[in-house]
Amino acid sequence: MKVARGSSSQLEADVAKKKTETDQLRAEVERFSGLAKDEEEKRHKAVSLLKTVRQKLVKAEKERDDALKEAATAKEAQKTEHDKEQLEREKLQGELNKLKVEKVVSLADLRAQFEKDMTVSKQRHEREVAALRGQFELETVAAKVFPDYFF
User: Fold this and answer.
1) What gap in Å lies between CA 41 and CA 7, rounded to an integer?
2) Predicted TM-score of the model (pTM)
3) What would the pLDDT profile of 29-64 be if each residue is shown by its tens digit?
């Protein structure tokens, strides 16, 4: 019986040892299972974060593209407006030049008409002066010839 007790004690010790090992293995399995669960949660969070970052990146790229399109449209509109203003400026400059030419021609015509009128007026004045001079000379001669008639 001693042997049976010794063997039984040995078996109990072996069972206790195996139970301790099993408990340790279960604890390790639980710890690794917890670690795996934590890692899975981290991976899930990382994937979610990557999706969010990707969405924000796509949105930012779209906004950038829209802003570039808007800037190009605004630049094109500004260029069109500038071209339109340039055409208007050239048109107005042409009209101004035309008016300047008309002014010069008009002034030349007025100057020529003035010179012609002055010449005609001068000639008429000279004729009138000559006629008056002739009349005064005639009256002077007549006054000398007929002194009693005029006074």
Assistant:
1) 49
2) 0.45
3) 999 999 999 999 999 999 999 999 999 999 999 999
Place of tokens 């008056």: 132
Counting every residue, how long is the chain?
151
The total number of structural domains in the chain stands at: 1
CA distances from 151 to 11, 134, 138, 143, 146 (A): 190, 20, 16, 9, 9
DSSP percent split of the chain into helix, strand, coil, nearest 5: 100, 0, 0
Per the structure block, which two tokens stand in for 88?
């208007």
Round to whole Å and give the CA distance between 45 and 38: 10
Q: Are 31 and 23 in contact (CB under 8 A)?
A: no
Torsion sign (Cα): 137, 142, 148, 150: negative
Look up residue 35 and give its two tokens.
């670690």
| Residue 84 structural domain | 2-150
Give the C-alpha separation, 148 to 123, whole Å: 36
Query: Pick from 50, 104, 147: which is nearest to 96 by CA?
Result: 104
* Interatomic CA distance for residues 127 and 133, integer angstroms: 10
